[in-house]
Design brief:
Length: 323
């Protein structure tokens, strides 16, 4: 009778979420083995460029390897699905832009529930803009619009995949200006950038382009933000150019599958918040064209909801659809 009563009490404690001493000890010791960071795009793209300095810093901070695993394909859906369906033990996380966590679920049926990802921390924002190859002789945003109107469908725009932020920006630009661009989707921004630098495509709007703008290899026509970029102070915003409703940074965050203990998520968030404030991390993110953004976990949840509403409005206004 006593044994049966004990088992009932143990089951009740488990149902109420009361952790055993062994579980509490394991959570306190976290991490005691390598941690996987899934990046749902190919190496060398914008998400990858943000993920790698964070992996290095978290490895140093916790004394365990934080390993980036690139699982590109399907506009980020493959890697995101893997993260959603991974064990909720605190050893697998997703590093993602808002593409797979916000954009895609609004555009098509995805093989995962985007709400089955718990926000952990904001990793940084990247301000991008439309860039173009110099071989066309186009130097300004208006010159690009004029050329596109005279040559419908001739300008080839490369993106990291259908439904990604860069693709949505292109569709919105087409909607607002009436131009006709040829969309060329890739498995990731790095592949598109290779073709852009080779002259096989003409335009992009990806974070990985920024270093090549600074090197003079491609031309930046605008910035997608409400204010001008400190890196490119002479380049106008889309709002200044008369394209309203499209000014926004691409934001990157760390996500976990639902069920990871709050103690682990809080511990990881606190460390990311601490690292974000250091000059060294700011410099590393700047080299990737990014900047840290400090938010509590609750603020990140609210931000995702606000961004989802904004993207939904953009999709409706531009009548954006993907197959």
């Amino acid at each position: 009778m006593r044994r049966r009563k004990f088992l009932k009490l143990a089951a009740a404690a488990g149902a109420a979420g009361i952790a055993s001493p062994t579980v509490l000890k394991a959570q306190a010791a976290w991490p005691d083995k390598p941690v996987k960071l899934i990046v749902p795009f190919a190496a060398g793209g914008g998400t990858d460029l943000v993920a790698r300095p964070w992996a290095d810093k978290l490895t140093q901070a916790f004394g365990q390897q934080f390993v980036v695993e690139n699982r590109g394909g399907a506009s980020g859906m493959i890697g995101t699905e893997a993260a959603v369906k991974s064990a909720a033990d605190g050893y697998t996380f997703l590093v993602s832009s808002n593409t797979s966590t916000v954009n895609l679920p609004l555009l098509r049926k995805v093989p995962y529930d985007s709400k089955a990802l718990t926000p952990v921390a904001r990793l940084g924002d990247v301000v991008t803009g439309f860039v173009i190859v110099p071989s066309l002789g186009i130097k300004t945003f208006q010159e690009m619009i004029d050329y596109a109107k005279k040559n419908p469908g001739k300008l080839a725009f490369g993106s990291s995949g259908p439904g990604t932020g860069p693709h949505l920006r292109m569709e919105y630009l087409v909607h607002k200006t009436g131009i006709n661009l040829l969309h060329v989707p890739y498995r990731g921004g790095a592949d598109a950038l290779t073709d852009l630098l080779a002259g096989n495509i003409h335009m992009m709007n990806e974070p990985s382009c920024n270093p090549h703008v600074k090197a003079g290899k491609i031309i930046l026509l605008n910035v997608n933000h409400s204010t001008r970029s400190e890196d490119f102070p002479n380049i106008p915003t889309l709002t200044e150019l008369g394209i309203t409703g499209a000014d926004a940074a691409i934001w990157f965050s760390l996500w976990s599958p639902v069920g990871v203990p709050e103690s682990i998520l809080d511990k990881l968030h606190a460390k990311i918040d601490e690292i974000s404030k250091t000059d060294d991390m700011k410099a590393k993110l700047l080299a990737a064209g990014s900047a840290p953004v400090l938010q509590t976990r609750q603020e990140l949840v609210a931000f995702r909801e606000a961004d989802s509403k904004s993207v939904a409005e953009l999709i409706k206004a531009a009548n954006i659809k993907i197959e």
